[in-house]
Amino acid sequence: MGRGISGKRTLIQTLAAIVSNGYVAGFVHGTIYTGRLKTVCVPGLNCYSCPGALGSCPIGALQSVLASRQFGFSFYALGFLLFFGALWGRFVCGFLCPFGFIQDLLHRLPGRKLRVASRVDRPLRLLKYALLLFLVILLPMLLNNSFGFSKPFFCQWVCPAGTLTGGIPLILANESLRNSLGFLFSWKMAILIAVIIGSILIYRPFCKYLCPLGAIYALCNRFSLYRMRVDEHLCIDCGRCERICPMQVEVRHNINSPECIRCGRCRGVCPTDAISGGFAACPAARPAGRGTTE
Questions:
Q1: Half-sphere exposure (Cβ direction) of 94: Cα atoms closer than 13 Å
Q2: Which of 132, 157, 134, 153 is nearest to 217 (CA)?
Q3: HSE of 255, CA atoms in CB hemisphere, 13 A
Q4: 3-class SS at 143?
Q5: What are the distances in angstroms from CA 56 to CA 59, 144, 151, 166?
């Protein structure tokens, strides 16, 4: 059952990445798609400047509008985020985010894996909320220039997804861009390299500690329509679910934790099918169907 869940998830992640980045001509010619679809946000972290991107990144869209006095508050971008957050929560992170998928693939590379101690892990998880508040919301709103514009601080100074899927492909395809590289690109490359190495050793370090989009969806986890549930009558407290959880969630006590990305690994190892997932009040697993999936 565990392999089945993992295989389906990988397929969905692959399709989501292809759909989000289906503009093949962009990679061939080193250009960015600017058609009508670009006015629509995709649910996951996917850089606007990626040559293959067909839609906009919701974090980039939110920053861009907040950074301009001309537009004021971005009801569209915020409404989009709240809609997907209220519907799916961090299911988006686990299944629909291309950069989350990249981290998953990196973590599958052979080698030693690390599990961050709780005393270090828990404080670090708050960092993504600080980045959301300051770099995504407050600084773009407050630091406007004389023309009424500001910078998308998170995209410009932090986002490794933009460097990997946007910056590097465009630089490789355009000599003029290569000749204009400076400190900022070196800084972002250093962040990207750190995230890549970290993803090989630690499961999804960017999602856990740095992603402001993940922070928004995390805040929605507790009230999203898609819910996880542990049937107390079937649970035998074996602890397998918590040992296998890559996000270090206390599954038996707080399965809808802000850190749960609904990856399904806990369901795959549960010997009694006590864990289920679905919209609203998902049905509990039934004793008579212990050997079946939901």
A1: 23
A2: 132
A3: 23
A4: coil
A5: 9, 23, 17, 12
Please report, to the nearest 10 degrees, the dihedral formed by the alpha carbons of residues 203, 6, 106, 18 taken in order.
Answer: -120
Q: Which CATH architecture has domain 230-276?
A: 2-Layer Sandwich (3.30)
Tokens representing 243 are 């040992």
Residues 56, 34: Cα–Cα separation, whole Å: 10
Strand 275-279 relative to strand 226-230, pairing: antiparallel
Helix (H, G, I), strand (E, B) or coil at 144: coil
Span 193-219, pLDDT tens digits: 999 999 999 999 999 999 999 999 999
For residue 176, the SS3 value is helix
The answer to whether 41 and 57 are in contact (CB under 8 A) is: yes
CB 81 within 8 A of CB 62: yes
* DSSP letter, residue 135: I
- Model confidence, pTM: 0.89
- Domain locations in the chain as residue ranges: 2-219, 230-276
- What is the DSSP secondary structure assignment for residue 13, as one 8-state letter? H
The pLDDT tens digits of the residues spanning 234-267 come to: 999 999 999 999 999 999 999 999 999 999 999 9
Question: What angle do helix axes 75-88 and 212-220 make, rounded to 10 degrees?
Answer: 60
